[in-house]
């Protein structure tokens, strides 16, 4: 009954923690493609190829359902994967839709026509590849009209977090928020469009100010998956073991993950 969770690096651990808290009975297999991180500076074809390879490896662990806990992969590769590559008996889901459904106050799976919503001005913080893809704007247009999105490509933040340089990461966040505010001085809401960003969410919130509602993904994705599995329990795979897999150095990745989650994590070579 295992479910896979994929990220280009360690940011997806923020989603994994929320998933484990929400669904403690489900064994999760986490795959971090640390050898090729960050994805945010890669082109769409490269991201697609790397994501397909990782998902195929997760399927080998008995996971019929994989969550792309990586906004860059969700933005640049997911639709192409679903349309041309994923077999009928498998599912690959992204992390954008639960976020947008919360932003637009729609129920999970609400596929009615787009309508006006309370939020009119949205600040999106994401990796350069996610910003280039315009996937957030595309998914938002399916559900809402009249929403202005200003996107800020947050170069360097993921690299700093992966390297454990939180001082640099925090400085970069403040710089990117300042740049966004020069383009959109008074957003109604801010979206943290990368699963690494919850690790510096308090810095985003402080820089944005208390008047701006901040949407972060982990709990939203966990609620969405719980709802999905309640409707589709057949998508629970045959795997039974919890695992952490990486394409990087297992010892180094384990040490960094243990720091992030503040509990012992042991990665294996993928």
Distance N to C terminus: 20 Å
CATH topology of the largest domain: Rossmann fold
Please count the beta strands (DSSP E, at least 2 residues each).
12
Total DSSP helices: 12
Give an overview of the whole structure.
- The protein has two domains: about 5-95 and about 220-270, 3-Layer(aba) Sandwich (Rossmann fold), CATH 3.40.50.1860; about 95-215, 3-Layer(aba) Sandwich (Rossmann fold), CATH 3.40.50.
- The strands form three sheets. Strands 4-3-1-2-11-12 form a six-stranded parallel β-sheet, with helices on both faces.
- It is globular and about 50 Å long.
- It contains twelve helices and twelve strands.
- With about 270 residues, it is of the alpha/beta class.
- Helices cover about 45% and strands about 15% of the residues.
- The two termini are about 20 Å apart.
- β11, α12 and β12 (about 270) form a beta-alpha-beta unit.
Helix/strand layout:
Blueprint: E1 3-7, H1 12-22, E2 28-32, H2 44-59, E3 65-68, H3 71-76, H4 78-84, E4 91-93, H5 96-103, E5 115-116, E6 121-126, H6 128-133, H7 135-141, E7 144-145, E8 148-153, H8 157-162, H9 166-183, E9 189-192, H10 201-208, E10 213-215, H11 218-231, E11 243-246, H12 250-261, E12 268-269
Parallel strand pairs: 1-2, 1-3, 2-11, 3-4, 5-7, 6-8, 6-9, 9-10, 11-12
Helix pairs in contact: 1-11, 5-7, 9-10
